[in-house]
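The following record pairs a protein chain with its ligand, zinc ion.
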Amino acid sequence: MELPSPEVCYRALQSRDARFDGLIFVGVRSTGIYCRPVCPARTAKFENCRFFASAAAAQDAGFRPCLRCRPETAPHLASWRGTSNTVSRALALIDDGALDGKEASVEILAERLGLGERQLRRLFLQHLGASPISVAQTRRVLFAKQLIHETRMPMAEIAIAAGFGSVRRFNETFRGLFHRAPGALRRKSASVPAAAEARVTLRLRYRPPYDWESMLAFLEARAIPGMEWIEEGIYHRTVEIDGGIGSVEVSHLPRQQSLGVTIRFPEVKALPAIVSRVRRLFDLGADIETIDGHLASDPLLAPLIAMRPGLRAPGGWDGFELAVRAILGQQITVTAARRLAAQLVALHGRPVPAGIAHHPSLTHVFPTPGQLASTDSIGLGMPFARLRSLKALATAVAADPNLFRTQGTIDSAIARLRTIHGVGEWTAHYIALRAMREMDAFPSSDIGLLRGIARIDDNCSTAATLQMRAESWRPWRAYAAQHLWTVDASAIAASKDFYD
Ligand SMILES: [Zn+2]
């Protein structure tokens, strides 16, 4: 998808059309500021407007972010560029810090995506109007700006959290852009929380519609006691990153078209990683209108889309955790898998130190690959073959922590996963879909999918026919799968015995 014509963009701007939020940014020549299309400020004259496909492109062209509409709060639409999966995947990697730090480079990033550096730059220019480095830099500026506006964090901590490397560089960048020190931006902000606390609360915007109820129901059915907790519409979980332990809570703010995220974590450096995990778990980057529109063109799926507009495909919090859940869930019910996972966490997960967890039900973090790889006995009552695959998985991830990172094509990712003992076609596709965010992954032999499709199509009852049926759902087969799972789950929810 390319940038629409300037006339279309301008009409979106004039009507403050929220559907274009995150898809286009407008730079105003007379002020040097760039805005979201929904900016409440008076609309500039057409001849003064320049339109961009990304905040980075606007910043590259010399515009600075608006303090009123705050371009950093536009939805991050990592997957809207449906015509270029490579760009979507590169954006996800940049979000994870692929271009942060001294050793990072565009060359290495391109290599991980299985293409040449020049080709990646060309794709970025074509779809975003900016280079990968500009995109990474702009994300740092915008994340810092969000922390300035929405939290009470000290400026020195924000510099580290946003990945600037030094407070000096942070100050220089902000002075260059705004002609004032970063701290001066905070005083301009109206909505700063009252007290400084050892926690950070941010709003993460999505592109509506968002089926929060289905998302929460999905997470609740799979919540691992001791590690996850859902209460009064709020999702809580423990977090471990690089040995640090903390927690997050996530709630829905429908009027703001956002999720409210409160993070408690000892190291501010981990904030971008935690935010990016929340975005992934709750699938905030989806251009859901485009996806729903595409799937609804199949008359079979149309009623499902109409019933649950904005249904998201939940991601995994962590690749290893998700893969373990997938293996535990092989051939048993979601409820039984959840029980096993709770045992695993209680036996092998580190306990959460007193004062860290914000809720008494959050007692442990998920075990690390190293912990499971080195233990003599996993100690779960399950078939020996599956215990062996758990161990093989832990050993493989301990040896290659990047196993679940995007590398190459979806087929090569599936093939790599399948080299792990006990990871078959179904498990590999399931991991690719939820942990690696391959939105075209499709575990066609899944029993829940087969039951789901059988409920709406009498002629489709085998994995092979389902696979054929699913061809027209590309490149969003993961969303079709989520609809089929949800149909199946809600049809038999009464028995509380539905399958993955
Ligand atoms: Zn604005």
